[in-house]
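User: Assemble these into one structure.

Assistant: Restating your components, then the assembled model:
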Amino acid sequence: MGMLDKLEMPRKMCPVIFLLDTSGSMTGAPIGAVNSAIENVLPELISMNDSNPDNEIKVAIMTFSFDADWIVGGNELLSPEDVQNSWNDLNAGGPTSMGEAFRALNDKLSVSHGFMKHASGSVAPVLFLLSDGEPTDDYQDGLQRLKNNNWYKVAARVAVGYGDSNDDVLREFTGNAETVIHTNDAKELRNMIRFIAVTSSRVASQGSSVDNTGNVNPDDNTQKTAEALQNQGGSLATADEEW
Amino acid sequence: MADFVPLRKNQTLRLADGRTITVTDKLGEGGQGIVYRVRYDTGEERALKWFFLGYLKDPLQFYRHLADNIKVGSPSEAFLWPEQLTEYVEGETFGYTMKIFPKGYESFSRYLLAKAQFKNVAAMVDAALNIVAAFKALHNKGYNYQDLNDGNFSIDPTNGKVLICDNDNVMGHGEYSGVLGKARYMAPEVVRGEKKPDKSTDRFSLAVILFMLLVGNHPLEGIKTNYPALTNKYEKKIYGTEPLFIFDKKDSSNAPHKLLHQNALRLWGFFPSFIQEAFCQSFSQESLLGGKERLLEQDWFNILMRLKSSLIRCPHCGEEMFLESDRVTVCQSCKKSVKAIGHLLFGKRAGQDVTVPIFKDVVLYDYHMNSLSEDFATKAAVILEKPGKFGLKNDSNFNWKIKTPSGKILAKQPGEVLVLGADAQIDFYNKNIAQVVVNS
């Protein structure tokens, strides 16, 4: 090997974790919008990885209805390419076991017994929650456990509420009203998921140049995400729009 | 405040100078705004950086800052400098035009990700020289960059030409953009919150960039810094309060990790002692904790020129290697020893040694002919080898004057070859003299 044959510099892992409500009320247009949104988000994450020598986004996706189910990356987080290659559309049906989802997430947010172990370390994760209804189980217990988790504390926490979602619960989850967005329109739902997921992933993985305003705790990635969402005026053009 | 609205295709905008531009395409998007392709009425194309409204904390001040930089002008052609602002409308966002990124350039980030690779070692060394030359031009013009990081550069892998983008935060001396930079590239005193970015902190960032370019890992990331969770607390430790060079001469507790930092472990030995020394000085505890001992652009320039003129092919295996002027060098590819018979010793430049090993095919540049020249591209001489002797072919426009040890005076015109005899003194131009030194 010569002087020019360099290996990729080691990157920190930037976990992007989706918790998706697939309860019965999501059937039809809403679940279609979620499927389409995830398909649209993955190429954006791939392209972010393609130009970021600091951190590499890895993905896990959990659905919750009867119980919590890691459909992607439950043992080890996957690259967005691998998710793209193995992605199957989600189906909806069942209750909204959000407490179970929080507990299952808390179990995995650990270096010693979860999926946060990475040879070169990790940066704060993105925790993305989507829901369209009231939790049908005891969400408080799960949320309390999460709140004691150090990864949760530094995470960029964002949520999208649809239809009859209980946005108070979503705000409790994010701890920041500005990173919860609500819509009642299935078509808009897809764009919102994309907007929130892409922006939060960019904030978490690119770490943005630090400024000295001193207003934001540097580990408050949720507030940084709130500001990034605000900066963009709450809307981005969508990928399939007429250019 | 009005919402940010992305531009649409065929939308026209007025520039501050009264001309109009038409949006034709979207080129990219980042944390600060969106970059569009636009066209002047003349058909000429430009890129337009269009800021997110919320990104602008004080829009009018930032607008005036950009207008000033446009007026003062670009430090050198390596900068994709703002050309013209769109007109200022109270309460709305704005943008500026610049040249479109030419094809063939690859972002420095992609070299770090091993997705881009230089065509040859000479192109890599030229890239380093071009980066240094660009920052010298910037600082000479009274600016400092303040947010130097891997995302700002693009390099042509075939020839090492460099383009520097994202010049919006470039500030005049004493001005401050409010941006501190990206942690991995920030000077420790800025990370510690003791100082705002300036020329001296730019120079630290420059040394980080050069190290990553040549050695392929971060100078402060080793076994000690491999924390499982990189939160602000640890970031401050690694890059601010407890920084330690991975090749620190006195303290090996942050040595490269054998799996994570294979580039550093494998490539450090490729570089001659004077390059290793320059990095050891740049990342010494005195520099990291005291802000001292930092190399100026002029220092780097001379050191990198020495590197450039030490590039040879190993006589045993044919791989490219850097040959020390005055001592045995082990080829890192075949592990065999190579030694030059002697070297050309020039007068120091800005305190830095200037030497060239006497070895077949080594090239001298206009830089070596004239002590005021900074031209590292124009070839001026080449070392030739015949059985039992080495020659120096004059490919320059200068008439060389040579004084032999016996006091004889010779002259070599362009195109002629001088036999390199022991202890001869070559005056290339205007008392810029090199001595032929035989290695012991």
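Chain A is about 40% helix and 20% strand.
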